[in-house]
Structures are given as structure tokens and as C-alpha cells.
Sequence to fold (293 residues):
Amino acid sequence: MTASGVAVLGLTACTTDSSPTSPDTSASTPSATTQAAEEDPDRVALDRAVALTTDLLSQAGQPGVDIGGRFAALHTTHLAALDRAAGASASASPSPGSGLPSLPGPRALRKRELAAQRELAHLAQEAASGALARLLASMSAGIAACLSAP
Amino acid sequence: MTTPVDALQTALAGEHAALYVYGVLGARTSQSATPLLFERISEAYVAHRAWRDLLTNRLVDEGAEPTPAAPTYELPDTPPTPAGVGLAAAGIESRCADTYAYVVANTSGADRSWAIGALTRAATRMVGFGAAPQPLPGGPDLA
Fold:
């Protein structure tokens, strides 16, 4: 038998939820979405991811910070994916500040990216929805990959 | 509906395949001529072997019969050159990333935590083997 085991690995997203846990509310700031968050336990995590990514994109856009625009392109892709995940209301949600330090320079950029990568991994760990967990984990891995690139 | 055990079985099948292919790629890599590539292939082989064992034990703990390795696996159609080996290795990691992301979606707790770490490691390994960084490793359909 020739098993195409590697090819078998290409699997699509799954919406299965398992053992939902509470999102990390400590990472959020109060907002008008509180009621929505009660209805959707992942709303806080999603809003936090949008805030983080928006902030990273804004800071990467400053002159001399993101040489080659690698991180700006990354976060633009991430924001689009988050928008799709959130549906039409995503862009209407207020984006509180990310809380990440806004120091200038490439070294500070790497620090911010690393902090965001870790927080996204944490949000993925805590997400109630498997689909959202997958997206957040993929974003976290995408930042790690970008940071590891020469 | 996919259960956590189903997802872990899929990941184990992927580790079997990855180990097989890495074994072949290792044989196509020269430690003296391309020491960095050799080191990266070796490191990846050791990591995937550890994950195979971890997943096997995890499935046994769940009372499941771990998916066995197949006798053989389809090999990447890449030339046996250093560039070809790197390309093939990046391809393995890309497919593994898809699997780990699938595990993230279908598990919770420690299993999900492992899968998040494995996904991150696969994404950085891909870059180490010369691939461009992917914005959404394991989730190309999300982009």
C-alpha cells in the first residue's frame, strides 16, 4: 500500500468546538461590545485580536520601522481574515488601544511583534470556537515565521 | 463531527509520513557539504519523532489504538539537490502546519496548547528551509 500520508494532511477548517473555556477578559478593555461578548464568548478575543493587529499595522507603517513592508503586509492579511471571521460587524467594532509599547525603530517593532505573537497564541488557547482558535493560532504562527525570516 | 481523538490520529498519521520523508531527505543531505541543511533536517527529524511518540502515548492514554505507520509514503517530486531537499522539507512542514491547525480547531486544553506550539514551530521551520514566511500557516484558506 502506498499511503499518501503527507497529502492526507491537507485538511480544511473545522468548526467543531470542544470544552469551551472563558476568553481572557484581562486582555480587554471595557467597550460597547460587552453585551455582545456575553452572547458570544469569543467576541472579546476577536476584538482584542483586531485591536492588536490594527495597532501593529499602524506602527509598522511608520518610516524606517518595517524595512521592506513585510510586517505591514502580514497584518493587512490578518486584518482581512479577522474581518471575515467577525462578519460584517467587525469593522464597526471599536478598537481599544492594544496596550503595546509604541517605541520607534526596528528593534522595538520586533519586541511588539513578539508580544503580540504570544498574546495571539494565548487567545487561541482560550477561544471557545475551534474555528477562531485556528485563525488566532495561525496568525500567531505567521508572526513567528515573519520574525524568523532573514 | 471530528473528535479530539480523531484530530490527534490525523496528526499522528502526519508525523509518520513526515518521519518517513525526512529519513529519505536525510539520506540525500551531506553533513560535510551542507552542514546547515543537514543540521536542520536532523533537528526536524528528531522533533517529529518526539511528537510521534507524544501523540502515540496521548492516544493510548485516551484508550485509542494509535494509527500505525504505512509501509511507505509518497515522496516529494523534488531533485536530490540541497535546494530540492530544502523545498521538500518546507513542503512537509507546510502540510504538517495544516494538520496542527486542524488539531487546534478540534481540541482544547493541553492538546490545543501542544498543537499551537507545533504549528508555530512548523511555520518557522518552513522559513528555515528557505520558504517565504506565510501570513497564515496552516490556514491558507483563511487568507
The mean pLDDT of chain B is 96. Chain B has one domain: 4-133. Helices of chain B lie at 4-27, 35-61, 82-106, 109-128.
